[in-house]
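step: validate -> pass
step: tokenize input -> pass
step: predict -> running
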Amino acid sequence: MNRGRRYEEPKLNMKKVFAVIIAIIVIIMFIFIVKGMLTKDKDQSKITSNDYFVSFQNNKWGVIDSKGETVIDPSYGEMIVIPNSKNDVFICTYDVNYNTGDYKTKVLNKKNQEIFTNYERVEAIANKDENNNLWYEDNVLRVKKDGKYGIINLSGKELTSIEYDEIVAMDGIKNTLKVKKDGKYGVMDNEGKELILTQYKDVINLGEDNKAGFIVQADDGKYGVVDYSGISIIKTKYDGISKVYGNDYYVVKQEGKEILVKKDETQVLTSGFNEIKAILNNTDNGIIYTNNKNLYGVMKITGEVVIDPTYEELKETKTGIFIAKKSGKYGIIDLEKTNKTEFKYTSINYDDKADLYIAEDANYNNEIIDNNFEVKLTGILTDIDDEKGYIKIRQGEDYKYYNLRFEEKYEKDIFSTHTLYLSKQDNKYGFVDKDGKVVVDYIYDDATEQNAYGYAAVKKDGKWGSINQKGSIVQEPTYDLDEYLKIDFIGRWHYGKDINMNYYNQL
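step: predict -> pass
step: emit ->
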């Protein structure tokens, strides 16, 4: 049966078909291109971080972000404090009276809005390490209201009542605050949890963290030890407690004399030394002590001298291994007094996590020594990162990377998310991508590696400038930074001269 023309199968218009196919291909290619661009941008974003930094310009202080853009105009006469670089909490000090010590504070966010306005004063809590380097507790702020103090977190939540006479950091210990209330001292952590009741005349840290416990002083002036839960370990009956402990042994002072006691206060060692400096990892090996000439030795808890007091310094690194100083030079010895290295260094430090020794000579050259006391690397050490597992050392004119097995690595092996890698050719510096393709020509006299924010410093004709993660010039080389200890850029801002202040400067 004839169905008629309207039911016949249509003929294909091949020109239109090809046009549609080409259009589809173009759309697919476009999608892949866009996807590639987004992926590339995503990859590049890995090297940047939303951090904030103090800025300094025309003798005024402000804030910039990790793109080098101004967040708070440099308009404050006092340095702005940023307790945590990840949070837009900027503490500004103003109306300072240097004669009376009075001042006011306000806190701004990234929108330049004032926050935490219901307090008379808001401050970061300063702390310092054993080398007096200043840092701030990064998750808590001290606030003042009606003459009393409390703490809040960086979101403004009150973690304690505003009831304390004083709140300060325990020197060198994170997450541990010394508080005073009604004339008595106690300890709390950065979440406001009370560790030690406010019932002591004074509280002093015993070790390098709060888990070691605390030395406490009673109203009668006597000292004891409590743990971080406030439970008494050593009764408050001694004239003093030394910051020396280990394996449930403590050093107490009575009638001007040091005594080594057990946790149950049984006296273990009472004579044969002038001062106890350390309790060894293996308590059977005893103590490091000094004699009346302030020379160091090792004595068992039985009183037997194992290492005669002939050293100017002695520090145990691992069980039975010591960094020692003799005739003004450092070396390494064991418990049998065997020299594991020569006494020829101006200093030796032990990196516990990497399990290696860093020795330095009079010319500031370093030798990296493994746990078999073999020198594995020589040069000028610039960094050891235990977490990423690398050593960066300057050897001759070049900086080289090694893993902790002392196998040579390259910058791209360590920093896989970088977009530019420093390269040197014919005594000039440039940058290549991860495939070795030249992105920035070899035209610079000096340069730094790309930092965490995508910027690298470049030097030409004696002046420093910066490039971004694509290799484009951000700041023409115009800065004379020869007297600066650290060369680093965030956009057009260069790192400040005083590296302890951690700020960025711009003309």
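step: describe -> Residues 420-507 form one domain.
step: cleanup -> pass
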